[in-house]
Structures are given as structure tokens and as C-alpha cells.
## 1
Amino acid sequence: MAQVFAYILHKDGVVDDTALELAAAAKKIDAGATPNAIVVGAGDALDGVCNDMAASYGEVWKVANDALTYPDAEIVRKLLANILPADSIVLFAHEHLGMDLAPGLSVKLDAAFVPDVVDIEGADGSTLKLVRQEFGGAVSAHVTCDASQGAVMTIRPGVFAADESKSAGGQVVDKSADAGDFAATRKFLEIVEAEAGDVDITKSEVLVSCGRGIEDEENLEIAFDLAKAMGADVSCSRPIVDAKWLPKARQVGTSGQTVKPKVYLACGISGSFQHMGGIKGNPFIVAINKNAKAPIFQVADVGIVTDMLDFLPELTEKIEEL
Amino acid sequence: MEILVCVKRVPDTSENEIELNGAGNDIDRDDLVYSVNEWDNYAVEEALQIVDKVGGSVTVISVGDDESEEVLRREMAMGADKGILLSDDAFENVDGRGIATILKAAVEKGNYDLIFTGAQADDGAAQVGGMLAAMLDVPFASLVNTIEVNGDKLKIGREIEGGNQEMYEISLPCVLSIQTGINEPRYVGIRGIRKVASVEIPTLGAADLGLDAAAVGASAARVQRTDYFLPEMGDGAEILEGSTEEIIDKLVELLKAKGGLK
Ligand SMILES: Cc1cc2nc3c(=O)[nH]c(=O)nc-3n(C[C@H](O)[C@H](O)[C@H](O)COP(=O)(O)OP(=O)(O)OC[C@H]3O[C@@H](n4cnc5c(N)ncnc54)[C@H](O)[C@@H]3O)c2cc1C
């Protein structure tokens, strides 16, 4: 079996949660093997990250260079193509850096590519048996991947339980000198921080959240009415922000806000992983959706199969009477 | 600026409930309503807005069967100047890499400064743009949500976590995958569609593209979907049943108990 490498996300010396999830995913490919980690970056904090990872990975390949102070995917892809052995299996988290970096890397390594893997059923020789989702999570698919010439995969964050065993007793190997030429093809300028909104939904205890099921901008009123009656704030899924019906600061999800309410009312929201990824702290989730098969019902505590446009005003009325 | 936008015809999840067929190994394809992939509409709109500002033309291209012509026509009704359909029996069941290989061959027959794909499509793969850029050996950026043209360079924003944005300068030619929300795609009326109904859309197959059918086709696909299924789920939600009034009463009790009413 080929060597498995996991690309470690880290920031300001802090390792991302996905680092140990990738270790768990690697063990599902080959339970007997010890996967390796790749840590690239610059500065004093890098060694701490590498040492942390040595507890969970056999070898930690470190590439230190000032050009890597900010991990520009175009640069990192080049250096990975320079250092990775032929036929390796390389794992990334399926988030914005992985999406930027991994598909092109598979081409440069002439390896197979499988994005957004949600489960690994094992390997049959060099054929990997994987699970993905399609159509926004409405259905799952079994996928086979011929990894005989290597494979690059992105793994959905949060689906593998972190491997906390920390028993690898690994070592850090400095590969900085082998990284070769990795001149930038685009120039990193800056990070523009999100604008603050009129309400800070990250502090809200109760959220009435609207998705595409709200259908029309004018219907948002019924959500605001309900929120007022409940003493809640209104948040939303991404399509509502894309349509410019509500400001970005009210969007819940991986590319929006991370909220930690006690109660979350998901109205007309299908339950995509990018949306659910922004809901933390295990709130009581009520899903109101007219499609009984909507994926949100798999993760909600309580479900109501109904048209939210009729249901929300009736609920508001009842609460106002209390 | 010559801009190529790669588009895909997909089942419209807002018009269909995607379900398994009777045999439980594929989705139920009867009576599916198709439309253009949501992300691609934003990509076409962005291309049109750039050409409005700096001049040039927009070509839309799709790998698909004859029916994909309808989405090309829709995007031409939005304002794209040309459509190209890449279609061949040999292109059936190719993997993402196969699609990128086919697109690359078509790109090399033209002279494009800028190539867009949607950030992802119905399979949530988000792969074709990055592969295409790597094959063409040009710069790439994914999840692009702002573009500003400055001569032969672009200033772009990429969407990262928490609503933050990563800004880059990138030179042409390049491939960008476009994220939803970058603009507000224009509405296409029946009138617009009718206007382009008889415009000819050239179809290119493997031979026209100089591609070896065996090298791009399904047999070359290293990644293959074997079936669709519904995973065994945990407990899932407790579905409240009864009359609306009963449901509301139950819900209000639950909300009170969980601290949802103030
Ligand atoms: C890189 C990336 C980042 C992303 N980040 C985010 C993010 O931060 N947050 C986010 O939300 N999304 C994000 N998305 C988008 C995400 O993948 C989904 O497309 C999105 O969450 C879907 O929103 P939705 O559930 O409102 O819409 P849909 O998936 O269209 O679901 C609408 C639901 O409403 C139901 N419905 C329709 N009408 C009614 C009615 N009258 N009454 C009751 N129910 C009704 C339908 O049955 C359906 O389940 C991201 C995508 C990408 C690629």
C-alpha cells in the first residue's frame, strides 16, 4: 500500500481540528500503516505544530520558508508536487484551501482525485472504496478510486472522529531544502475581514433561521415577526445572502458565522454540511421543511413537515397569545 | 477580453426532490426538471459584466449530450456571444479529470484570456476548474467572489471562512471558479430565449478535439461511482404529527422547556 500523507492546516501555531480527523481517515484506508503529515509554514510557531503532529503521525514533513508565511495554495501545490513520492495518497480537508489546492495537485502528480469524501470503506488492493454525497446531501454514492498511480482526496470536516490516540511517536523530518522552486503565480495581497452586521448572531441564544424555502424577500417578515414574539434573532442560509435579501453577517455556515444558540429553528433549510458546519454547541434544532426527505431531518431534534409560509404565522400568533 | 465559461446541465434541486429509483441503485430520473448549474449562472453574469466594461466576447461551453444545448442557449439568452457543445458517445461516464481533459482540448482550439467555471455543481466536487488550470499550466483561484480588471492583471477576492476574503493579484490567462453571490445574475425571459433559438451551436466530438476516445472515456476513468444509496441514519428528528394546532402546542411546550421562548 502506498504511503498516506495528510496536509495539516494550522494558524498562529494552533492546529486545526481536521488534523486529527485526517489521521483517523488515513487509518481507515490502511489500519496497519502509520500515516505521515505535511506541515508547511514560516516562523517560530511552526516547530510547535510539527512536534504536536509527531504524536499522531509517523513522519512529519516540515517545509519552512518565509514565502509560506501565508499558505497560498498555488505555492503550496508546487512544493508538494516537488516533494511527494510517486503514487502517494494525499489527504486534505475539504475546505477553502483544499478546494483551491487539491484538484490541480492531482493533475501535477498524475494521481486520481476524489473530492469531499464522507466515508472510507477500505481498500481492495490499490482500489479505494469511498462514500460521497451528491445533490446537497440528498443521496450518497459509493465511489471506487484506482489509486495505483496515487490519489489525492479531500475529506469533509467533521465526519471522521478525531484520532486522539497520540501514540504514533513520530519524528519531524525537515524537507525545506528539497522543496525546490515554488515561485508564486499569483500575489497574495491581504485578508479582508467580514463586515459586522446590525445584529451579532454569534451571541444569540435563540435563532429563527430562514433558507431558500422562504421563497420571496417579502416573506422574510413572517420570520422577523416570529423572532420578535420569541425574543429571538433572525439568521439565514447562504442563498438568502446571495440574493441580497439579508446581509452576510446573518449567514450561518462555514463561509458565514459560527453560532452557538440554545435553540435553532431551521425554516426552509435543506441542511447542507456547509450550513450545519456553522452551528456549534449542540443546540436544540427544530426543522420546519415541506420535504419529509430533506437531510435536515437527519440532524434535527424535532421536525415538522409543513409549508413554513403557513406555519410560521400560526406559530407566531400562538406565542403572542401566551 | 475573450472569456470562456464552462457550464453544466444539472437536475434542478429546487424543482425536484432527488430520490432513489425502485432498484435503489440510481436516482429516479423520470420527470426530472433540469436547469443550468446555479454557480454557472453567476460565472456567466460575471463574464458579461467584465465584457461590458472592457470589451471582448463571452463563449459558453458544455460537455454533455444534445440536451445540454438548451442550457447553452439559456446562457446565450443572458448575453453570451457564442456556444460550443462538446459531445461524443466516448464522453459518457467520464470522471472529473476526463471532463477537464476534454475542456482543455477545446480551450486550446481558441484564444481565451480568462476561463470561468462554477465553484461546484450537482455532485459537489469542485474539481474541474483546478484540474483544467493545472493541465493548461495557468494560475488558478477557486471560490472567487470579486473580480476587478486592471490591464492584463486581475485583482480577485476568494471566499474563505467566516465571511472573510483572501485578496490576490493574478495574471492572465488564468482559470477562476466562481462562487455564488458574486453578482446578481440577470433574469432571462421567454423573449430572450426565443431570440437565440435558431443560433447555430457547433458540436465538437473527440475526433474534432484531437482526443483519443480510449484515453478520455469511461474506461480511462480512475474514479467511478458504482451506485447511489441512502445511508443508514441515526435516530433523526422526532417528527411532530397531528393537526397544526396540536403540533404548535407540542412545539411551544418544547421551546419553553429548551429556553426558546423569552
Ligand atoms: C464553499 C461553499 C461554502 C458555502 N457556505 C455556506 C454557508 O456558510 N452557509 C450556507 O447556508 N450555505 C453555504 N453554502 C451553500 C450550501 O452548499 C447550500 O447550497 C445552501 O446551504 C442551501 O441553502 P438552503 O438550505 O436554504 O437551500 P436549499 O438547499 O435549496 O433548501 C431549501 C429547502 O427549503 C425547503 N422548502 C422549500 N419551500 C418550502 C416551504 N414553503 N416550506 C417549508 N420548506 C420549504 C425545501 O424542501 C428545501 O429542503 C456553501 C457552498 C459552498 C460551495
Note: The two ends of chain A are 65 Å apart (CA to CA).
## 2
Amino acid sequence: MDERVGRSGLTDRLIVRPEVGALLGAVVVFVFFTVVTEQFATIGGVATWLDDSATLGIVAVAVALLMIGGEFDLSAGVMTASTALVTATLSTHYGWNVWAAVVVSLLFALGVGALNGWLVMRTGLPSFIVTLGSFLALQGLNLGITRAITGTVQVSGMRSTDGYAGAGYLFASTFTIGGVEFQISILWWVVVIAAAAWLLVRTRFGNWIFAVGGSAPSARAVGVPLVRTKILLFMGTATAAWLVGTINILRFTTVQANQGIGLEFQYIIAAVIGGCLLTGGFGSAIGAALGALIFGMARQGIVYAQWNNDWFQLFLGVMLLAAVLVNNGLRKRAERVRR
Amino acid sequence: MSPLIEVVDIGKTYGSVIALRDVSTVVNAGEVTCVLGDNGAGKSTLIKILAGVHQHDRGEFRVEGEPVRFSSPREALDHGIATVYQDLAVVPLMSVWRNFFLGSEPTKGFGPVRWLDRKTGRTTTRKALADMGIDLRDVEQPVGTLSGGERQCVAIARAVHFGAKVLILDEPTAALGVKQAGVVLRYVAQARDRGLGVVLITHNPHHAYPVADRFLLLKRGAPLGQYEKSEIDINELTRQMAGGAELEALEHELRAQA
Ligand SMILES: Nc1ncnc2c1ncn2[C@@H]1O[C@H](COP(=O)(O)OP(=O)(O)OP(=O)(O)O)[C@@H](O)[C@H]1O
Ligand SMILES: [Mg+2]
């Protein structure tokens, strides 16, 4: 029997980990911008691109779990605006305490997430279509309700609301390292990554995520609660979007009703760069976080290099294609399917 | 003692398609009931009812004497009925031990905070597989890297390990070579000898005959006949399956061509 063991060396083990490609990519991007720009690798530079990566990465990690579970959520981007609008409208326009508004906003997000999941499971339609619907619906609601209530397309004035100081401390304060202020969003990101990574590979629920994405009928046949697992994953992306929406509204104190559009694809791109398969069943939370890191580093690096932002789009496109190709190769090695 | 499973005049329609009608059979502990029939005969439909994937709309389905109607595979599992499907026995990208424990993962932790007990998972899987004579080099490898026969064996070992009383196998040997089919049939026999009731579905009377105690023949959703092993020999079984007279005609035809 021993002749079969030969090939499973360390490299084989490493190469089937979904985040390896993203890690290499992150190192390359980091080294590149460190060399071509002055500020990129300074503490101030790091604080800037980490913050950018964090607000993207918080949702990207949740989206990665959902994608591993075999579904998409196109409403996650506008959801960051919807939740911010709920919080801002309740506290500035109706005079609610910020904490209460934040809690109601979370309930709203959980409700929409559950509705997304329930609709997908109930109709059997691709989640791409169902959440495209909720994406459009939320976008319409964001604008329509904001205009109806405020007469404008933005809500502002958070700073003078009840409970702003405390909530702001939790979601939008800064901490200082080496004389430079870092946004607390970075800590939130770290917490989300740690929780998601642990959930995914160390818990029963994580096992179910891989199973429902890898083969839903097989999972159901051995008693995995398919519907519950998927609905919870949709609620997870909505919650992550709520966290980012809350961070944003408390930091900037103003929210535009048309904010957040386009972010949904950035989340998916970060997850794919991080090794998630579009077909589900394979990927990692840490990979998605690395994907978001590459995103943030490249976006800020291009600013530091004083290049036109058009180059960022080109970079993204190339990155995405490269990632998909690498992932496919890795998956084939991981599977080496024999029929 | 009542049989583990008993179905009486059971029927199922998908919209206007009558997939199954008036089928009756029993499954006893320590016996193999074999369901034979052509493509589209209703074999998978029958076992999907037993497994809780679909519900019957006519007749009665009893488990240990109690009439039941399962609304999910989980419910069937809770009654001790485990199913190994044609192609979806396992999740290919997941490791062997994660597949083995899927849906019944061992956990440890404090109070409500629980996490996977990966060590127990791995050692138990290795041991359970070894008990059934399956020797795997690495329980961390993705199941997709196993051969078809090995995958079926993992699924069977899983069902046996989790205390199934009834094991249902939908064409476990369909995609396998002669030798691998033999290996799988040996595990089927082993499960039977441990006292499980087995429902085996196959196209192939040569796979069915050595292990089965009872044969249920289906044709276009209806029962064609039911025989105890003592009532029928393999030639007659083959003849019945191919539709008796039709086969004789075919034989003539082939002989004429030769
Ligand atoms: N979900 C479904 N919806 C509609 N018709 C179905 C469905 N499942 C099965 N059928 C029909 O019911 C009949 C019996 O199908 P079934 O899958 O039980 O056959 P089978 O004996 O398992 O065939 P095979 O040997 O090819 O696996 C077929 O005519 C099939 O087309
Ligand atoms: Mg079938």
C-alpha cells in the first residue's frame, strides 16, 4: 500500500490551499508599490490602505462564506447604504438614540438577508437573479424613501444625535500606532476574519457550508439542514454590510442615498481572487481577506504613484482572470476527479 | 416481529407521470431485498420514498409496524434508514473524514460554544473504514480523489457506523468495474451479516443474485413479480428482467445474425 503515499509531499499540501495564490499576489503587489512609491510602505500609507481593505474586506469575507455555500448576493453593496440610511434617518429625523437606531438597522439587515435566502430556497431560482432583484429594490427604496422624508438624496447631521459619542467610539474611532491614527474598522475586519475562518474550518456549521456548496443534494441526503444553512449565510452577508454601513455613517456622519452601488462586484472579485470557486464548495475566509487586501493596496498604491485611476480597473481585470485560472488549476489538483 | 420496512400498494405520481403504482414489499433485518428493473422502471422513485426525499401519494409505508410519511431525509435517518445514492453519495471536494461525519459531526467545547473535534473525527473515520476492511492512505484527502468503488464504500461504512437499521443502495455498482463491484458487494454482504436490512437496487442480476434474499421486479412503475431466492434461479431472473419472451426473440435474432 505504501507505494501510493509518495506524492503527497508538503508542496502538494500547500498547493491545494485556496488562499495560496492570493498570498503570493498580495506579496507581489506590496513589493511593487513599496518600490515604485515613497509613501506606500510608511506607517501612514499602511494605515490608509488597511482601512480601504478593511471596509471592503468585512463584507468580502462574508460574501466568501456565501459563495462557498454556493450562492451570490448582489444586494450586499447597496445594503451598506440602506443600513446607514436607516440608522441616519431614525436618529437625525426622528430623534432616536443612535444605539436604538443601529439595532433597528441590524434587524432590518437580518430581515432582508433572511428574505433573500428564503426566496432563493423557495423559488429554486439562481441567487444571482433573486438578489439582483433585491439589489434593484433596495436601490429604489434608498432613493425613494430618502427623497420622501428629507426632500434631498442624502441624510446628514449624525454628529448632533443622542448617543453618537458612544456608538462612534465603538464603530468609528481611531487608535494610534507610531504616531499615526489607524481606523477602528481595521480591528473589526480582523475580528470578522478570525470569526469567519474559525466558523468555516472548525465548526459543524462550517462543514455544512462546504457541503451545501459542494453538493447540495448529497448534503441534504445525509441530514444537513440545507435551507437553514443557506438562509443563515445570506443573513451573514447582510450583517457584514450592516457593520460597514454603521462604520461609514458614524465616521462620515452623512450618507448619500445612491451610495454602495458597484461594491457587490468588488466583494465577489475579492472572494474570487482569494480562491473561492464561482461554483461553490471551495474557498477560504482568509483568502477573501487577502483578496480585499490586494484590492486596497492596489487602489491606494495607484493613488500614491499618481497614476490615473483607469489603471486600477485594468489591474483588477487582469487580477481577476489570473485568479480564476489559478483557482481552476488548483481545484483540479485538489479534486483529481476519477470517475 | 414486524419487518423493518413494509410497503403496501404504494404509489407515486409526478404531475401526470405515474412513476410507481401498487408496489408492495418487505425488508427484514439481516436480509437483502433487491429491486430490479429497466431504466425508468421506478426503482429510484421507490427508494426516494423510503429515504424521505419524496412522499408517496398512495398506499402505506410502515417502519417497524408504524405507518410513516417522512418529510425530509433527516427524518428517515432518525428512523434508522440511511441511503447511498447513485452519484451523490459524497461531496467530492471535501475530505474523507468530513464526508464521513457530514451531518453528524463530533464536537467539543463549553456549553453552547462548540467546535469540531477533528482528532476524534479523523481517528474514528480511519477505524470505521478499517473495520470494514477499507484501507485508506489519508483521511484528509478529498473524496473526489478516491475511486468510484472507494467512494461507495465510504458511504456504506458511514451508514453502518451511524447505526443505520436499513441501508438503501441505489445502483452502487453501476459505474464500477468487475473487481470494484465485487468489493462493494462484499460490504453489502457484511452490512447484512451485521443485522442490517438492505435494499439494493441494480440493473444487473449477476450482482443481485449472490447477495439478495428477495427480488422485486419493476416494469414501467408497476410490479412484475416478487420472488424469494428459493423460488427463482439466476437464469429465470435474467429472463424475467429482460421481459421473458422478448429476450427469447432477441436471442433468436442474434443467433440468426451470427
Ligand atoms: N422528479 C421527477 N419529475 C418527473 N418525473 C420523474 C421524476 N423522477 C422520476 N420521474 C419519472 O418517473 C419514472 C421512474 O423514474 P426512476 O428514476 O424511478 O427510474 P429508475 O428505475 O430509477 O431508472 P434508472 O435505472 O434509469 O435509474 C421515469 O419515467 C422518470 O422519467
Ligand atoms: Mg435510478
Note: The two ends of chain A are 21 Å apart (CA to CA).
